[in-house]
Design goal:
The structure holds two protein chains of two kinds.
Chain A: E1 10-16, H1 20-28, H2 30-36, E2 41-44, E3 48-53, E4 56-67, E5 71-76, H3 82-85, E6 90-98, E7 104-111, H4 117-123, H5 126-141
Antiparallel strand pairs in A: 1-7, 2-3, 3-4, 4-5, 5-6, 6-7
Helix pairs in contact in A: 1-2
Chain B: H1 4-11, H2 14-25, H3 31-36, H4 42-54, E1 58-63, E2 66-71, H5 74-106
Classes of the chains: A alpha+beta, B mainly alpha.
């Protein structure tokens, strides 16, 4: 059993007025990710999560669990920064639960950050919050969050 | 369904804000760790944590017999986006209006 310590497990949770299927699509469909994930085009298949900048393939992560529209688990490396890219991979889990009145609860857990202190610092706070608040706005209004 | 009212209510208490600050410093704490820093009964701290959890500001995870508490600041971020940005933006656009009005007059 591992012990949870500071910042190595981060949990983010948000209610979104959308069905689990719509949220799932927004997570795996590259056309959606471009609008809320720092402009990165991310394509997710049952095996891989590939990040593109324009048409250039920049990064490939392993997909560890792929269970639409409920659960997606993939590895994470902050490839866009050389110091962080040198750190050990961490893990991101997306969980979608259906709620009442057309809402779903999206929980993102970023853990296994023990070998990636710089990444842990970088994604905490505004990092994930910016992405998830943008995802919520996009699904609820059809528009990206104003920068 | 959680709403802004619950978040504002949860934040309108110094002990609960203190608990959030403790989790901000170090996340994933147990009730025992959190209560050791407060002059309050275990039951009192539990009640406050429950209010924070209901408002979505704290998410708990069980690990064996321990329950760990994680800060989820997203509801605060959403209130910021929904309320604070809105009024700050109005002030900015009011200044922009004033500028164009003054420029119009001097032209």
């Amino acid at each position: 059993m591992t012990t949870i310590t500071a910042q190595t497990v981060q949990v983010y949770q948000v209610f979104i007025k959308a069905s689990p299927e719509e949220i799932w699509k927004a997570i795996i469909d590259p056309e959606f990710t471009t609008k809320y994930f720092h402009g990165v085009t991310i394509e997710t298949t049952p095996e891989e999560r590939r990040s593109y900048s324009g048409s250039d393939l920049r990064n490939v992560q392993d997909v560890l669990e792929y269970d639409p529209p409920r659960r997606l688990v993939h590895s994470w490396v902050s490839y866009y920064d050389p110091d962080m890219a040198a750190e050990e991979p961490s893990r991101v889990t997306w969980e979608i639960g259906e709620q009442e009145d057309g809402y779903s609860l999206l929980t993102v857990t970023h853990d296994q950050l023990e070998g990636a202190p710089k990444t842990a610092e970088s994604v905490s706070g505004t990092g994930w919050m910016f992405v998830l608040s943008g995802l919520k706005t996009l699904l609820e209004t059809g528009r990206p969050l104003a920068a | 369904m959680r709403d802004d009212d619950q978040v504002f209510k949860a934040l309108a208490d110094p002990t609960r804000r203190h608990l959030l600050d403790r989790l901000f410093e170090r996340d994933g704490r147990t009730l025992t760790e959190l209560e050791s820093e407060l002059e309050m009964t275990r039951f009192g701290v539990m009640k406050h944590l429950h209010v924070l959890e209901e408002a979505g500001l704290v998410v708990t995870r069980r690990q064996g017999r321990e329950k760990h508490h994680f800060l989820n600041a997203l509801p605060i971020r959403l209130i910021h986006d929904r309320w604070i940005d809105k009024y700050a933006e109005r002030r900015v656009s009011a200044l922009a209006d004033l500028k164009s009005k003054l420029e119009e007059e001097s032209a």
